[in-house]
Write a structure and sequence with these properties.
Elements: H1 2-18, H2 29-51, E1 60-68, E2 78-86, E3 92-102, E4 115-120, E5 129-135, E6 149-160, E7 165-167, E8 175-176
Antiparallel strand pairs: 1-2, 2-5, 3-4, 3-6, 6-7, 6-8
Keywords: Membrane, Transmembrane, Transmembrane helix
Transmembrane segments: 38-56
Length: 177
């Protein structure tokens, strides 16, 4: 029994010298070192996620304008003119454009809803643009004296030659006005 008490006394004396209450030694700088690593990892993640533009990952660029007047080929009262640029390396076979429109008074003047979907069956080669027009006459419930505005504009689906499909059903990459 004497040996056990001597060993216990020596370990308690050693623990008191290192400042540990349970016999384990801990460096006080380790906590700061881990915290600095976490801060660096968080900063790197923020740079990668937010510094790179989100649109750089989309396979298209799109621009649209509302046109009022008479163009007998596409519409009688008003239409929309879209410019679609294919940024991918594949040929686009078909794409679907979603447009949210409102009048100048921010009121919806359309018969069913504010969301209008257009289907475009144009082949678009890689790194080229196409300009297309769509009539809005079927969607208008009343003709305003002032023009309509595009609130949101995005491509919800792209079908490629060879069967590939890219989708954005919720408008994550929408152009907002």
């Amino acid at each position: 029994m004497k040996n056990k008490s001597i060993i216990g006394t020596e370990s308690v004396a050693a623990a008191e010298k290192t400042g540990s209450k349970n016999g384990c030694s801990v460096k006080e700088t380790d906590g700061l070192h881990v915290f600095a690593k976490l801060k660096f990892a968080f900063a790197a993640m923020c740079v990668l996620c937010f510094a790179l533009p989100l649109y750089a990952h989309t396979p298209y660029r799109i621009k649209g304008e509302v046109s009022v007047g008479t163009d007998t080929a596409f519409y009688e009262y008003t239409g929309i003119v879209l410019t679609f640029y294919n940024t991918s390396r594949r040929t686009v076979r078909k794409f679907f454009v979603v447009v949210f429109l409102s009048g100048s008074d921010e009121m919806i003047s359309f018969s069913n809803e504010n969301r209008i979907v257009f289907e475009c069956d144009e082949n678009v080669a890689p790194r080229t643009a196409v300009r297309t027009e769509f009539g809005l006459d079927d969607y208008i419930s009343e003709m305003q004296d002032e023009t309509y505005h595009i609130d949101f504009l995005y491509v919800s689906k792209i079908e490629y030659d060879g069967g590939g499909v890219w989708e954005d059903p919720y408008g994550v990459h929408a152009v907002r006005r």
